[in-house]
Amino acid sequence: MTDRLSGFVVVLEEDTRDDDAQATLDAIRQLRGVLSVEPHIRDVGELISRSRIKREIMTNLLAMARDA
User: Fold this and answer.
1) What is the number of domains present in the chain?
2) What's the pLDDT at 25?
3) Any residues with CB less than 8 A from the CB of 52 and at least 6 apart, and which?
4) Is residue 10 domain-resident?
5) pLDDT single digits (tens) 9-22
6) 57/63 Cα distance (integer angstroms)
7) pLDDT of residue 22
8) Which of 37, 43, 54, 64 sits most deeply, having the most CB atoms within 10 A of its CB?
9) Which stretch of DSSP H or E encloses residue 27?
10) Could you tell me the CA-to-CA distances from 38 to 7, 16, 29, 53, 59 in Å, in that order?
């Protein structure tokens, strides 16, 4: 059986000013099937923090592997 998705969470690489993010928000709104796009102000913090920490760890591991 196939799962039905009701939405996605997009995690930005860094906190971005709302006026600087406008083009990104507009682009996501243009995707087919998107009903709404609502920015969240540092409230989905745990997910964002974990995603960024994972990316930083992977970046550091890759750098260490290249140096070895």
Assistant:
1) 1
2) 94
3) 11, 13
4) no
5) 888 888 889 899 99
6) 10
7) 95
8) 37
9) helix 22-29
10) 12, 14, 10, 24, 29
37 burial class (0-12, 13-18, 19+ CB within 10 angstroms)? Answer: middle
For 32, the domain range is: 22-67
Residue 21, helix vs strand vs coil: coil
Nearest Cα neighbor of 14 from 24, 28, 6, 4 is: 24
Cβ–Cβ < 8 Å for 13, 52: yes
- CB-based contacts of 29: which residues, under 8 Å, 6+ apart? 37
